[in-house]
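Supplementary Methods, section 5.1.

A reviewer requested that the exact input to the structure prediction be made available. We therefore reproduce it here, unchanged from the version used in the analyses.
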Amino acid sequence: MGKVLFSSWAHKVIDNRGKAPETFQEAEPKKLPEIFAGNKKIIGFMGWDGVVLKDESVNIVDMARAYLEAVQGASCGRCIPCRIGTRIMLEAINRICSGKGKKEDLETLERLGQEILTSAKCEIGKSGPLPLLHALTHFKTAFEKQLTEKEELPKGNYHFQVTAPCMDACPVHLDVPSYVELIKNLRFEDSLSLIRERNALPGVCGRVCIRPCEFHCRRANLDDPIQIKTLKRFVADYEIEHEIVPQIKSEAKKEHKVAVVGAGPAGLACALYLSLRGYPVKIFETLPEGGGMAAVGIPDYRLPRNILQYEIDVIRKLGVEIQYNTRVGKDITLEEMKAQGFRAIFIGVGAHLSKKMGVDGEDAGYQGFVKGVDFLRDINLGKEIYKGKKLLVVGGGNVAIDCVRSAFRVGFTDSNIVYRRSRAEMPADPVEIEDAEIEGVNFHFLTLPTRIITEKNRVKAVECIRMELGEPDASGRRRPVEVKGSEFIIETDVLIPAIGQDVDLSLLPEGSGVEKTKWSTIVVDADSMATSQEGIFSGGDCVTGPDVLVGALAAGYDAAIAIDQYLTGQKMILPDFRREEKIVKEIGVYDKNEKLGIVGGVPKSKMGHLPPQTRIHTFDEVELGFTPDKAIREAERCLRCYRVALYATKTE
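The structure derived from this sequence is encoded token-by-token as follows.
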């Protein structure tokens, strides 16, 4: 954000009013953008942590009125201080803005604001009055002037949103506090319906999401974060176990057909939300089943195949057609799709190619050298794999962990992983790392493979060298440096590189008109997700490179909005609600150092697991989920941490 007229954000007051612009001090939050959208400029911001003014044209009194209106509308109404108090405050400031205010109204605003902050049960009440109190403190003369002049204030232009730290962290911006509260109130079906408004694969996400929401849960500042992911799984499983028919309403059928390339998370999400808007959608998928990398890259012990297929069936029953065993670019081209009457095409192919290690011999075709994504794909598709006793995986991400954990389940007795940094730098989910350790995987940290050792064209061992951590590199992690003379040998029958994936864009030949990057990803407009070729859109791994599943779901959701705009002749722009969500994400809602001022000590519910010695011999699901009692107890731990954000804008 840089230099502003005034900021009371984050417990730090910066007042540049009356000063020369060149002497302005910088203020928080530094990532508040200049532009809201198009030619709309952000000139003021009110939120849970204070007030920011960027332009003298902002009328702070009217802005405070608009903010109180948003807070009153967002109040859950379950406690008197917030429900009644904010209504009385709104009535008082409305009188002030209409020119009918009295001095007593200012006293009411300050008194009730302080009382609500300290006595409200919900976080709307605990944070809502704060920016108004800041305005009354630092802009007292503006309020007194309005009382004296007694003229009706013209209303400014504002955009507001309700968010929460967990919502802010979620790529699809799920209304987490509401769906958790519905579980607390035993409304399991309603909870799942709310989740499906943004998340096309709730049962899948409830198992394999990397749960950024939980890492931004304010409950963690007290004891343990809410187990948001597992609660999502609970309501998804409840529907299946009780054979409940999903109640999903679609709009009236439309004429224009849409083609989707890839039945992975991005493609499925795009297809679902276009179908709900009434569009006939057909997905073209290379594999013999849907799910993309979720189907062939995640083992069944983490994501049972029947769960994934159930959720694909939910989408299919809404009218989405899926044509399997069809490679776009070979069996059908994009031009042929257009010729068949598809007015828009969404490309959502995943990252199915393995990155190279850069070690001599990895392209020699040695027996026992198997790429990580191929190893997992063959297991998931029931194909024969190369057998042995010892297996060694190179890498530190979730694919690497999936490989070493799967090794025991397909007959290996010695499973190892080498990673060139320490455990602290491993990008894999900490829960997955811990499960791998419990199951008996051997971890070799600060170790780098340098040479493949073979005998009669078969892998026999790997020469490695010890590493030590030096200065941080571009990723922010400390750069591993070789320790000279520390070479050693690890014997193995199978060597699996799992250091990353690449996207296969062979479906886009030269002359396709779709611009690509040097990293073999597709270039799209950040707001519309449109490619350089009219009518073709893209999202997910093929745009971002390998990313998390929930990110692909968000891309599919956004693409459906953009394609609907395109097919209905609208301007393809990011809707205000999505723009607001992205702006507040830049600002950041969660403060890990925040002192909540309430008592914790209520630990998270415990979830059952298959015993280690049982699970390493089967692909049965390891995590057993919550019982209803445990789910309700866990949901009751939620603090309902809603926040209200309001943007004052001016068209230039």
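The radius of gyration is 28 Å. These observations are discussed further in the main text.
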